[in-house]
Amino acid sequence: MKILGDVFLDQQYHVDIELDKFVFNLEYPLSTMGEPAKHKINLGADTPNIYETFNKLPLAVNLANNHIMDYGEEGFSKTVEYLNEKKIGYFGAGNKENNYNNPYIIKYDEKSIAFFGYCCPTAHPVFGGEGFNGSARLDTSNIEEDIKKYKKKVDFIIINLHWGDEEIIYPKPIDVKKAHAIIDSGADLIIGHHSHVVQSIEKYKGKYIFYGVGNFIFPDFNVPSSYDGKKFLNRSIKKQWKKNKETIIVQLSQDLKVSYDTAAFTKSTVQRKKITIPRWIPSKQQHYELYKKIWTKKRMLEIFLKAPRIPSIKQIKILFSIKNKQ
């Protein structure tokens, strides 16, 4: 079995990797017919493009992310309708009554594997609740309770966490602490996503923590954004950088041994490719913030050199660390 990262399919793509049984993070609703979420980038596709891209269907998909509700309850309902029709499992989003569809249990050979999904508030998702749908909240106490309920019922527990800072290749120290607590509670494997780049890997008490497996397929996009309740005010355009096209493929053998491979998405195709995986695990917030500050300035310079233009006052202040007075 293979566990993949973020997937957004605005059209058909190609996967030049043998995938028999696989699971991925579905980063978009399979409909744009509902009420758009306000004041954000809205991802969605009325044609799923899943079978056409993979030439088969996944065992299950994670729905705990900040885009699954981009077209409201109707978009979510259409997504679930498609997944049920195609007999694709799903987890990580729903409502309090169905525990956000956590867990989805897969029979793998003679083993049972429970998949859970949760989204961090820092990713700004729509959370579910009593009578309305959304992502499950990343809260270690709730996760610990979920693990406790199923630890003796299944052979292996996989926790999917949508968290971290976008574009940053290292995990936040607070997330490292959360990951350790989740492993201590009985999880066997943690799969992180949302940063859209590959992040560090850690083996803690013999269990793998993949803080960010990166995008499996996430193309350049030009999508509507900033819905104000009546109309979209902008379009969000992004050309993906090299790091946005690299990914880790986590592999789980029939005897439940974890390994991993790497790949890259180039020219509309995912192919195996060796990549550099970050190794640093920040333990202090000030060290992490220093790295993030340096990275932000470096990225601003790269963007400016690629497409020179007069910078805004805000950009100048960030570049030269001038604090903006309130």
Describe the 3D structure:
It is a single chain. The protein folds into 2 domains: 2-279, 4-Layer Sandwich (Purple Acid Phosphatase, chain A, domain 2), CATH 3.60.21; 287-319. 22% of the residues lie in helices and 29% in strands. It has 6 helices and 19 strands. Strands 1, 2, 3, 4, 5, 14, 17, 18 and 19 form a 9-stranded mixed sheet that branches. A 6-stranded mixed sheet has the order 7-8-10-11-13-12, covered by helices on one side. Strand 17 and strand 18 (258-266) form a beta hairpin. The longest helix is centred in the C-terminal third of the chain and has 22 residues, at 285-306.
- Note the gap between the termini: 52 Å
CATH topology of the largest domain: the name is Purple Acid Phosphatase, chain A, domain 2
CATH architecture of the largest domain: 4-Layer Sandwich
The number of domains is 2
**Element order, helices and strands?**
EEEHEHEEEEEHEHEEEEEEEEEHH
Query: What is the count of helical runs?
Result: 6
Defining traits:
326 residues, alpha/beta, disordered C terminus, Purple Acid Phosphatase, chain A, domain 2, 6 helices, 19 strands, six-stranded mixed β-sheet
